[in-house]
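Q: How do we represent a protein-ligand complex in a form that can be generated token by token?
A: Start from the inputs.
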Amino acid sequence: MSTSWAQFKREEIFIDGTWRKADSGRMIDVFDPASGEVIGQVPEAGADETRAAIEAAARAFETYRKTTAEERAAMLRKLASLIEDNKEPLAQLLTKEQGKSLTESRGEVAMSAKYILWFAEEARRVYGDTIPSPWADRRLMVTKEAVGVVGAITPWNFPSSMLARKIGPALATGCTIVCKPATQTPFSGLAWGLLCAEAGFPAGTVNILTGSASKIGGELTSHPDVAKITFTGSTEVGRILLAQAATTVKKVSMELGGNAPFLVFDDADIDRAVAGAIASKFRNSGQTCVCSNRIYVQAGIHDAFVEKLAIAAAGLKLGSGFEDGVEQGPLIDEKAIEGVGSFVEDAVSKGGKIVQGGKRVQRDGFFYEPTVIVNASSDMRFAREEIFGPVAPVFRFETEEEAIALANDTEYGLACYFYTRDLGRAFRVSEELRYGIVGVNEGVVTTEVAPFGGFKQSGVGREGSKYGLDDYLETKYVCIGGI
Ligand code: ADP
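Then emit the structure tokens for the protein with adenosine-5'-diphosphate bound:
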């Protein structure tokens, strides 16, 4: 394959091994968030194209499910190598449409390869059981089988790796898949079609559609041949998809929103806590579902922490992701800028004090200053809602019990973080926090070998790790009599 990122920019959808336009011929513009300029177009597919993709996936499933785990693992290993070999152009394509720095894009693409490799390895470990029989003349056996056709819908913040977490386990277990990447960042999604075909996956095993979210989502969630829906995105859209999928009782995995608390206790290593807060808050310019949303600092360390945090936030280099040393790229679009601005206005109107940033950056594209706000209080919107931008609200607390109660006071339960050097507290607090992912003295904890997913309204199921295959498998009990 060529080393140019343009090689991976396909302005067509991928159905049954063929690249084509939408039936209507209509196209949607894709923008570079660092400049606001159009960088290409993708087809506006709807229900008809989705149905064609589901039918292709259903046909492909009949033969693909019968391949051996070894054959599937070999193709997945090839896919992982192709991603690694093309890391640079894929990272450039990602930065072009999503805005994050090239360093972050390279990290994301490398993570995609790691997920695929992980699932290549796990493909051969889909074990069943034999159960001691309560009948002398019968034997009881449990096997695991691919669920069938999977419908996958992914967001714009990690357009490569969010699909890796879904395509990987689907193909490892013998499922086939129809993917709809986010409209803002479709090219990294469509690139999966090129890569999977090159890796040898048969026509129809992987299909990629761009276009109307509600029409494609509506068809994926209602078509009887789709066995499972896997979604990463907002809790709001997750609720819609869950309701739609209920009609045909599909299996569901949902990676939804978060409202991550970040607790700093008086006994914390303050510099380590500041570095962790910066990493967990400002990664991808604050646009991840595991970004710290609420920073709670114990009274004794509060002022020193805020001072260091503000200096570190001010020092983040902002600019186009293609510029050397940039740590803060643009937000995804104008709506995101307005959203972040509204959180800041709300906080200031209720007594919040901006100690760093607080404004849009006056230049082309969608840039917002890394922002730190103190005097944050629970009546401010960011105490309940996900900011999804580079704003760090700092709240003050007095006791461990208070911190735990504040941290758990949310409908979300994805990631949380806390900093302490007291071993007893490390165990106590992590056991009390109602979250699927807990970082103790660490601000960035995602890895393909550990389960990713949330408690409460942050979702259903887990991605990555040995648990990441479960949602793609049916359990079959076979009772053999007359022995
Ligand atoms: P975000 O706030 O991160 O954009 P969304 O939940 O809005 O999260 O979007 C995540 C994905 O869900 C995107 O691919 C988007 O196009 C898709 N989506 C949005 N609305 C719907 C819907 N009604 N049905 C199906 N998919 C949808």
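Residues 153-156, 180, 182-183, 213-214, 217, 233-234, 237, 240-241 surround adenosine-5'-diphosphate (CB under 6 Å). DSSP finds 13 helices and 20 strands in the chain.
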